[in-house]
Design goal:
- By secondary structure, this protein is of the alpha/beta class.
- Helices cover about 45% and strands about 15% of the residues.
- It has helices spanning about 20-30, 40-50, 65-80, 105-125, 150-170, 190-200, 205-215, 225-235; strands at about 10-15, 35-40, 55-60, 85-90, 130-135, 175-180, 245-250.
- A seven-stranded parallel sheet has the order 3-2-1-4-5-6-7, sandwiched between helices.
- Helix 1 (about 20-30) packs across helix 8 (about 225-235) and helix 4 packs parallel to helix 5.
- The protein binds NADP nicotinamide-adenine-dinucleotide phosphate.
- NADP nicotinamide-adenine-dinucleotide phosphate (NAP) binds near residues 19, 112, 137, 182 and 187.
Length: about 260
């Protein structure tokens, strides 16, 4: 299916790794232009090398826990590629499991993932064409118990509520706002979790991987490219009547909760 995003301009936050990098790659493959925002020079340099020379991709270093970072990311995108057709709010750090999160962990995730997404939406609104779209990435902890992670559950649920709020507010401009909800996805953070479980439980990495994947009804972690395909579909005209939706990409974990968890 041709996603029909060619010639369009997007901002992808956290586009240097994992789901964000896969989304950037797919948008570029389909002929779109992408400004990638991330926090560190290291991840930007790695992603730039990975994606190769391409005049349709740009990078901006921006700490999205702060409103100035959101402004910088959106300004870089619109100055380089003009009016925006869409924004993917995806940036989030690794939420370390184990024990109850302290206040600092709550604040860190809240500022990046909920207030950060809100700041990017606010910064982007004046620079997005009518008929454009936002996709906000949450996570299945919003829908089920995730041991040791009440902040992840609450903040991801907040992201989904934020999407519905803006879907209603922006429908008059035909701007659509949807949430994609990944389950266990084979990104860097997943590989770290495999390593951690292997060390913690004294088992080899293949057995640790099996332990993490075992609770996913489809029997494997989702590939980041599969989450990216859903994100790009929701940015595209193929989903022109879909707004305020929460789309789960989790191998069936929410439908049939097992023991799957990252960490
Ligand atoms: N992977 C999973 O299994 C899974 C499951 C459920 C939900 N999710 C959600 O999916 C999204 C992507 O996850 P992922 O696993 O692909 O992430 P990832 O591989 O850890 O990559 C995170 C991205 O966000 C950027 N980032 C982190 N902190 C930032 C900050 N303060 N300002 C700007 N950029 C920042 C990182 O850039 P730097 O490296 O430069 O900091 C990187 O590009 C997140 O919202 C995550 O919560 C993932």
């Amino acid at each position: 299916m041709d996603p029909r995003v060619g010639g369009q301009s997007y901002l992808v936050t956290g586009g240097t790794r994992g789901i964000g990098l896969a989304t950037t790659r797919l948008l570029l493959d389909e002929g779109a232009s992408v400004m990638v925002a991330a926090r560190t020079t290291e991840s930007i340099e790695r992603a730039a090398a990975d994606l190769g020379e391409n005049p349709r991709v740009g990078f901006v270093e921006a700490d999205l826990r702060h409103p100035e970072g959101a402004d910088r990311a959106v300004t870089a995108a619109s100055e380089r590629f003009g009016e925006l057709d869409g924004v993917v709010n995806n940036a989030a750090g690794f939420a370390a499991g184990g024990g109850h999160p302290d206040r600092a962990a709550w604040t860190e995730l809240f500022e990046l993932k909920l207030l950060g997404y809100e700041s990017v939406i606010q910064a982007a609104l004046g620079r997005m064409r009518d008929g454009g779209g936002f996709v906000n990435v949450s996570g299945i902890a919003s829908m089920r118990h995730w041991p040791g992670s009440p902040h992840v559950s609450a903040i991801n649920a907040g992201v989904e509520a934020l999407s519905r709020h803006y879907a209603a507010e922006l429908a008059g401009r035909r701007i659509r706002v949807n949430t994609v909800v990944p389950g266990v996805t084979a990104t860097d953070r997943y590989r770290m979790a495999v390593q951690r479980v292997s060390e913690r439980d004294g088992i080899d990495p293949a057995a640790a991987r099996e332990r993490l994947d075992g609770g996913v009804p489809l029997g494997r972690a989702t590939d980041p490219a599969e989450v990216a395909a859903t994100i790009v579909f929701l940015l595209s005209e193929h989903s022109a009547s879909t707004t305020g939706a929460t789309v789960v990409v989790d191998g069936g974990t929410i439908a049939a909760p097992g023991t799957a968890r990252v960490g």
